[in-house]
């Protein structure tokens, strides 16, 4: 059995050096409820295609790390219950046991890099959780960005996190954090985090050149592009702040920790905003898929 299985369209695109955009699956299984999760996953793939790139949704199915899912695999994953959430620590274990699991940002980056894919679009990366000074809860996504050469397009770290601490850790790890088209760091559901982003770029070509230059220097690791949610879909920061505080409080009260924390917070915020957070989440992922495809096209024009 081969470790990695590329779908036919993905294998062909990679072989030709054509643009491919990796997509994660934890957002499907743990980030959104059925059936909106499937609808989102299909729309994201179509958005990537409309922009002239090939989508590669990544997941472990019956022990095989699949890069590019067909329609039936995507639907089965979106409907499945009790699917594992796989990060760097558990990816190999799940595969060796013939299991099925969804890949987080960290595990998706690992698979993408192995498959020869250099661009990845998602919603929000994991980061430093509030209260991390006590819980030590820092997402493995940050370490992965430091060591795996993939450009990750997100809408900022999820606003449920401690954003100043997340930026500090990314700086320590040597990860370029690039706000797209503005000076402020975006905060997932909101366009602005109230923090200046370390770097700013205004075009996909610039972002592609920076990735190529980093590789030419022999520096390991990727880049994080933070793309603000479209104005029409944004939930302003002051509206969201009390909701996030409440969700974090509820998590503490119920002793939610580890892998369960991020899915719990997203679900709680969905309930507290009566679904508004989900509608925004879908729009920002589509927006990131669009930019991801444009970056992938630019990267595909540069020498490897
Ligand atoms: N972005 C979303 N929804 C999600 C996630 C990101 O809009 O569900 C997932 C990603 O897979 C990310 C993970 O890698 O949450 C972070 O989890 P943790 O904080 O446990 O590392
Ligand atoms: Mn964690």
Automatic annotation (TrEMBL):
Mn(2+) binds at residue 137. It catalyses: D-ribose 5-phosphate + uracil = psi-UMP + H2O. It is an enzyme of class 4 (lyase). It comes from the Bacteria. Its EC number is 4.2.1.70. Binds 1 Mn(2+) ion per subunit. InterPro entries: Indigdn_synthA-like (IPR022830), PsuG (IPR007342). GO terms for cellular component: cytoplasm. Its cofactor is Mn(2+). One of its GO terms (molecular function) is metal ion binding. Substrate binds at residues 85, 105, 139-141. Keywords: Glycosidase, Hydrolase, Lyase, Manganese, Metal-binding. The active site is at 24 (proton donor), 158 (nucleophile). One of its GO terms (biological process) is nucleobase catabolic process. Gene3D superfamilies: Indigoidine synthase domain. The keyword Ligase does not apply. Catalyzes the reversible cleavage of pseudouridine 5'-phosphate (PsiMP) to ribose 5-phosphate and uracil. Functions biologically in the cleavage direction, as part of a pseudouridine degradation pathway. Belongs to the pseudouridine-5'-phosphate glycosidase family. Homotrimer. This is Pseudouridine-5'-phosphate glycosidase.
